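Quick one - first record:
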Amino acid sequence: NMSVKEEVKTLLAREAFTMTKLAVEMTKISGRKYTMKSISDKLARKTLKYEEFILILNILKYKIELKKIEK
């Protein structure tokens, strides 16, 4: 299982998005100040909020799908 950090880095690479560009978009959409360093630190410390992860996914045009586990 990939960590959130690995997941975000993989998606950024796949979409040719830099951490700096992501920070700019997150700031623009949320109205909160994000920097490349603040996002990196949150990923490293595992303190990224679920809402922030969803925001990142939205910016990169991804979504989470919940699926019932069949017994």
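second record:
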Amino acid sequence: VLMENGSALVLSDESFFDWVHGIEERSSDKVEIEKIANKEQLAENVKENEELIRGARCSIVVWQGEYKTE
């Protein structure tokens, strides 16, 4: 998933607990169009092999209720 500036991705339930997710530690990304799952929803036009420089990013976790590790 390509995240555009000012966008957010919310994971909950099994998508948070069962899927592998995270923010890779690097300063840029090389565009590979066929690997972008949300290419039809992008506001910006991206080009194959274009280098996208990453800006500031953050990850926020909010818990509600009990956390069970079963």
